Amino acid sequence: MVNFLFAGTETTGNAMAWLWHALGAHPDAERQVQAGDSAFVDRVARETLRLYPPPWLVSRRVREPLQLGAYELPAGSQVLFSPYAVQRDPASYADADRFDPDRWLPERAAQAPRHAFLSFGAGPQNCVGEGFATLEMATVTSTIAAQWRLVPVGDTKEKASATLLPSRLQMRVERRA
Ligand code: HEM
To answer: Which domain covers residue 10, as residue numbers?
Structure first.
């Protein structure tokens, strides 16, 4: 239960902060979310997690000696890898720094290399909450967008803490007409 509480709150909370930040900077995407296009909302959530993966650094311990590309890793080594770096690599995604939810349209998503999306980790130890978190993000986004607008006040910077958070994110809440 403690693991669920810690693994499932700050991650989703920060992802939602980045989602509203991204929508605030992309009025066309915001309008499409407000129109109630649920498939688009799913793509917005995934694109937010690609650009701003809350766990920006994930680790693994090597059990047996391993040759990884040019590197020989002895058993017991700790390997850190960054979903943030992988997901902003132009080798994996065209125009990698651009917020483009439609890159997750099925025909375009199929072009992304395998394991180029690591926001929920990968392999047997990956996030057990992935399905719940994506459903939660889509539900909260649609529910808020139906009645409210979150308008950015000033900009923010990425802050790499235990998770990737906005340094400061001020938004004005407006009721939709
Ligand atoms: C946007 C939200 C979330 C993100 C980005 C996220 C991401 C991650 C990542 C990257 C890992 C490590 C995976 C690995 O090492 O390969 C992880 C592990 C885990 N997550 Fe999530 N998570 C999210 C939400 C949640 C939620 C909502 C829950 C529970 C309800 C949850 C429960 C867990 C648990 C229990 C683990 C540890 C799994 C293990 O060690 O076997 N996560 N998560």
So the answer is: 2-175
For ligand 1, atom 3, which residue shows the shortest CA distance? 11
| pTM metric for this prediction | 0.94
pLDDT in tens, 65-123: 999 999 999 999 999 999 999 999 999 999 999 999 999 999 999 988 888 999 999 98
- d(C-alpha 31, C-alpha 88), whole Å: 25
Show the CA angle centred on residue 140, arms to residues 99 and 132, nearest 5°: 90
User: Which CATH number does the domain housing residue 123 bear?
Assistant: 1.10.630.10
- How many angstroms is it from 127 CA to the middle of ligand 1? 3
Q: Quick check: CB of 134 below 6 Å from ligand 1? A: no
Looking from the CA of residue 122, the nearest atom of ligand 1 is 16
**CB of 119 sitting under 6 A from ligand 1:** yes
Phi, psi for residue 75 in degrees, rounded to 5: -55, 140
Domain total for the chain?
1
Residue 119 in contact with residue 58, Cβ under 8 Å?
Answer: no
Distance 66 CA to ligand 1 centre (A): 26
